[in-house]
Structure formats: C-alpha cells, structure tokens
C-alpha cells in the first residue's frame, strides 16, 4: 500500500518538478519578441533567485493534538503530514495570485495538516470528524486550480485540513461491453492513461495541466481537455460518480441518459468540494485509435480562420480537436521554436522561410495577422485520410493553406511544457496568466476584439506595457472557447497583485458584456466569484447558497468557494 510520501506533488513555489525549467537561450526569436512587446531585455535581467522555504517563517499548525491523534487513528501517522513543506504546497493552487503569494512567503493562513486517506471508509471517517470537531476540510487532487479553489481563507480561525486523494489512484474495473471504467478519483492524468492504455483503452481527456491534475479534480471543476471535440468535456466523460459525505454516500448510475428529476449528478460536477468528496468516477473509455495525426494549417487572418473552424464544426468531419491561434499567438508560437540544430530541422526552417516569403508576395501579413491552426484526426487510416481531405477543402475554401504534419508533431510533443514558462516569467518580474470563456459563433469575433480593446485600454490607463494573445479551441455546434493569455512586467511586489487584479477584472468584465461565461473550464473558486451573479443570475446564486448551506450547515467543506454565504 502506498503512503503519503509516494504521492507526487509540485515544487512548493511553482509548477511541477524541481529540475525542469523554461529556457530561452535556445529560442532565438523569444527574447526579441519580449523586448518588442513589453520592453524588457531578458538578456540584461538577473532572474530572481529561486525562493527558499527556509527564508520564510511558516506559522505553526493550529490543529489540536487531540484532532491530530484522531486523524492518525484513521489513516496512520505516515499519512498525516504537518511538516512545513507539505502544508505550504497544499495551501496554494497554481493561479498567478497563488504562485506570487507563495513566492513572496505570504503565509498569513496555511493549512494545518494534510491527510491522505486510502478508502471511502477513511474519507467518511475524516469528514465525520471534521463536522464533529468543527474543522474545515479542503479536498485536493493535483492542486492545479487556477481560480483559488484549494486556497484557504486567510481569515479562517478553525483548524484546516487538506484531504489529498493521491493514495486512491486505481482503475478498479473496465466494462469492455459498455466502454466504461470505474476509477478512483485521486489518480493523476498520466497514471490513469497508463493504466487504461495497458489494456488498450483511453479516456481521451488531456487538459494542459494533465501531468499534475486528477480525475476527482477534473470532475469537481468541470474540466475540459484539448481533445474535447471528440471525447467531450468532463461532464460528458464522467457518466457516474460516488460522493462521500459525513453522513452518507451518493452514487449516480453510469447510464447513458437519465430522467430522474433535477440531476444530482450534474449538481456534484463542478461543486469544488462544497458538497463532499468525490472518491470514484465511472468514465467513458474508447479503444486507442490505430492512427493519430495532427495537421497544421495557416490562415491569412483571424476572421478567415474562424470561418474555417466554424465550417469544420458544421461539417460531417469530426476531428479530435480544432485549435486556431490568432496573429499575436502565432507570433508567440513561432518565437517558442528552438534554434534548428539537426540537418532536418535546418532544412525545415529554410522551407518555412520560403513559404512565408511566398505568402507575403500573395499579400499575407506573416508577421502580425497570419494565424496557425492545428487539427487532430484519429481512427483507421482510411477514416483519417478522408477527414484530412475534407478539412483541406474547407481550409482552402476560406483562403487558408495546409502545412502538413511536421509542425503538428512538434505541437503535440510540447503541449505540456508551457506551464513552466509562468514560473520563469515570475522570476523575471513578469506575470503571465490566462482567462477563458465560452461564447457563440455569432459573438466570437466581437468578443475577441473587445477583450483586446479592454486589456490594452486598462494597460494604458495604468501606464503599463503588456502583451496579449488568444486561441480558439473546444468547438461545439453553437460556439467555442476563447482562451486569452497575457503577460505584463511589474516593478513593485507591493503593487503587483493590485495591477494584475485590475487587468483580470477588465478582461472578465468584457466576457460578461458579451454574454460569455465566467470561465469555459477554469472553475469559479474565489478568483472568478465577482462575476458569478452576472453569469448565472442572482436567483442562481441563491439556489447554490441554499444547496451548500443545507448540505453543509456548519460550513466545513471548502467554505467560500463558488459562492460566499
Ligand atoms: C498551467 C495550467 C493549465 C491548465 N489547463 C487546463 C485545461 O486545459 N483544462 C482544464 O479544465 N483546466 C486546466 N487548468 C485548471 C486545473 O488544472 C483544473 O481546474 C483541474 O481540473 C484541477 O484538477 P486538480 O486535480 O488539480 O484539482 P485541485 O486543483 O486539487 O482542486 C480543484 C477543486 O476541486 C476540488 N476537488 C479536487 N478533488 C476533489 C475530489 N476528489 N472531490 C471533491 N472535490 C475535489 C478542490 O477542493 C478544489 O475546489 C490548468 C491549470 C494550470 C495551472
């Protein structure tokens, strides 16, 4: 049986592994782009030294010895951690606010203990104890939340325990006939896919945070992976689940459709730990496709690219994903390409140069306007070939060109590396963050340009420089997700969060003006709460408050997330 020490965790001040960092010295276009867009000369800056936990004072745990003994009796002493590093790493998610606070040692309130149960019974015993002794419990998957969902309230006076599900990580069984797998909720993405793929199956859920997020966390935040066009968002993938509460267990049946009144299943999805702990999910699984190809395309501008993506969504083609970067994001992607070293990559770089020169001669603006797109196909060889031909025709009909599989392969291999970039930027006194929303095809272009206007207007007002870029992904019949990334240098630690919050607010408010959602797949937590009433109306907020208050009268389960009492 594994113990707490075997469960992987982030470095306490950043993303993922200690020895993996972002490098720009091998990317010749990166530093010039940063200089041009935000005025920073990366070569002239000395990065901040890596933070050391020993430089900060970590407040002592306020968990009473009686409560600690009761928790130890449930899970064993090796699975109750009160050491500083465990408590700090579990007190922050991976939002810019959380990463910044961790880096500067803002430990005003950190969790008092981290507990690792191994079974539903242990989870329930812990929840009972939490209610009886009036403690606070925060369920924890990978801690990759970027909306403040795992962060304790700085004013909380009660003892806070984090319940880490990492020891519950097994695929329990697979129903080959139904294409359903019953899986424990604490499993990390790579471990889950490894267990499934050993038996020829995949769940097909690959969020950018895949390496450091879990099935339970995905369900509790209504996550969406990059392959959602084919495999669905998590609410489509999770067909049944088990929610453990202090005084009972709720199981929702993994049936294809349900008419059992208002959906309890849907209420639990996205509940961010407010209703109890999801210990198990029954998920849709698919046979691993024999052929998989990611093809890259180029469009002269954003509008033609969107027309192409929309036409694909409305066609008979069903790609695994469709993704369109706008002009600024295309520029950024090209700046992330490594200096060619091998003969093959040097030849590819020459071909690219020639292609861009040709496109310029045809009137394309290859520097600011041109948009790159990736579309992924899976299935039998014939199926993939048929779909590729259909997409090629659509792309051509809106003025785009097909580049082929080369750039697609690079995109596919590098997609999980970008989270390390944010830590690098923070080390250079630059914050980089994202805001995403769901919108309809009819409002998509208007939303895209208005968010840019709002961002740059706010920057001007504050006398700052920054850079924004965007991509469209997660296509549906009626619309898609717009995903904005922005980076802004800052000078003062004291003002950083205030400036960042003002910009984030300008972007989120624009989502509301154009009838978008607070987020397409980054949850509500605390950071998206200011707009929740505009999104779901005051009546919707009241309904959620009543639900959480009735299910958790003591306010013991991750209080303050999604809505505040
Ligand atoms: C770099 C980066 C990229 C990201 N990319 C994506 C993306 O592509 N798609 C996407 O959807 N999200 C993305 N996210 C956001 C984040 O990864 C998701 O919200 C993810 O679903 C959180 O999973 P987790 O296991 O890390 O949960 P945590 O962060 O540990 O927890 C999130 C919330 O769920 C609750 N929770 C966790 N486990 C359980 C459980 N078993 N029972 C009840 N409640 C539970 C927690 O209490 C908390 O409220 C990204 C985040 C980062 C930092």
From TrEMBL:
Single GO molecular function: FAD binding
Catalytic residues in the record: 483 (proton donor/acceptor)
Keyword Oxidoreductase attributed: yes
Location of the FAD-binding PCMH-type domain: 107-288
InterPro entries listed in its UniProt record: Alkyl-DHAP_Synthase, FAD-bd_oxidored_4_C, FAD-bd_PCMH, FAD-bd_PCMH-like_sf, FAD-bd_PCMH_sub1, FAD-bd_PCMH_sub2, FAD-linked_Oxase-like_C, Oxid_FAD_bind_N
Site, Important for enzyme activity: residue positions: 323
Binding-site positions, substrate: 422
Binding-site positions, FAD: 139-145, 208-214, 221-224, 272-278
Keywords associated with the record: FAD, Flavoprotein, Oxidoreductase, Transferase
Top-level enzyme category: transferase
Record carries keyword Acetylation: no
GO BP terms: lipid biosynthetic process
Signal peptide interval: none
One Pfam family it belongs to: FAD_binding_4
Cofactor(s) it depends on: FAD
EC number: 2.5.1.26
Protein family per UniProt: Belongs to the FAD-binding oxidoreductase/transferase type 4 family.
Stated name of the protein: Alkyldihydroxyacetonephosphate synthase
Taxonomic source organism: Helcobacillus massiliensis
């Amino acid at each position: 049986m594994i113990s707490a020490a075997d469960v992987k965790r982030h470095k306490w001040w950043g993303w993922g592994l200690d020895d993996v960092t972002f490098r720009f010295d091998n990317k010749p276009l990166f530093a010039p782009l940063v200089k041009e867009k935000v005025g920073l000369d990366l070569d002239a800056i000395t990065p901040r030294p890596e933070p050391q936990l020993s430089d900060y004072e970590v407040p002592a745990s306020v968990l009473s010895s009686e409560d600690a003994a009761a928790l130890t009796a449930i899970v064993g002493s090796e699975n109750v951690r009160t050491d500083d590093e465990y408590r700090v790493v579990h007190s922050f998610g991976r939002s810019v606010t959380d990463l910044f606070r961790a880096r500067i040692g803002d430990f005003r309130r950190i969790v008092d203990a981290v507990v690792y149960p191994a079974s539903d019974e242990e989870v329930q015993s812990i929840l009972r104890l939490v209610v009886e002794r009036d403690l606070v419990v925060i369920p924890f998957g990978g801690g990759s939340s970027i909306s403040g969902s795992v962060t304790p309230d700085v004013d909380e006076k009660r003892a806070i325990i984090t319940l880490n599900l990492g020891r519950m990580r097994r695929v329990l069984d697979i129903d080959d006939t139904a294409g359903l797998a019953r899986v424990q909720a604490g499993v990390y993405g790579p471990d889950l896919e490894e267990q499934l793929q050993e038996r020829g199956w995949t769940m097909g859920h690959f969020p950018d945070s895949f390496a450091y997020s879990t099935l339970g966390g995905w369900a509790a935040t209504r996550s969406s992976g990059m392959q959602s066009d084919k495999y669905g968002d998590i609410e489509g993938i999770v067909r049944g689940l088990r929610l453990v509460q202090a005084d009972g267990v709720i199981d929702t049946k993994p049936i294809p459709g349900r008419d059992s009144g208002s959906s309890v299943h849907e209420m639990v999805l996205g509940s961010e730990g407010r209703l109890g702990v999801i210990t198990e999910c029954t998920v849709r699984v698919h046979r691993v496709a024999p052929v998989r190809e990611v093809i890259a395309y180029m469009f002269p501008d954003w509008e033609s690219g969107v027309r192409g993506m929309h036409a694909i969504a409305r066609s008979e083609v069903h790609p695994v994903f469709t993704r369109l970067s706008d002009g600024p994001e295309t520029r950024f992607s090209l700046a992330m390409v490594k200096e060619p070293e091998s003969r093959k990559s040097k030849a590819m770089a020459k071909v690219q140069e020639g292609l861009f020169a040709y496109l310029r001669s045809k009137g394309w603006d290859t520097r600011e306007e041109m948009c790159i797109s990736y579309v992924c196909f899976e299935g039998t060889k014939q199926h993939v070939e048929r779909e590729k031909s259909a997409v090629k025709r659509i792309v051509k009909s809106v003025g785009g060109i097909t580049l082929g599989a080369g750039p697609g392969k690079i995109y596919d291999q590098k997609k999980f590396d970008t989270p390390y970039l944010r830590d690098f930027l923070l080390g250079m006194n630059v914050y980089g963050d994202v805001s995403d929303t769901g919108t309809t095809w009819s409002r998509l272009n208007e939303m895209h340009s208005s968010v840019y206007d709002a961002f740059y207007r706010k920057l001007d007002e504050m006398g700052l420089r920054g850079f924004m870029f965007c991509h469209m992904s997660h296509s549906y019949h009626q619309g898609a997700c717009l995903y904005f990334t922005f980076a802004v240098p800052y000078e003062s630690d004291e003002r950083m969060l205030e400036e960042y919050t003002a910009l984030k607010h300008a972007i989120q408010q624009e989502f509301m003006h154009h009838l978008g959602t607070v987020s397409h797949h980054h949850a509500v937590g605390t950071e998206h709460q200011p707009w929740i009433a505009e999104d779901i109306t005051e009546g919707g907020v009241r309904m959620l408050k009543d639900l959480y208050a009735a299910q958790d009268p003591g306010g013991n389960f991750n209080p303050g997330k999604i809505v505040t009492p």
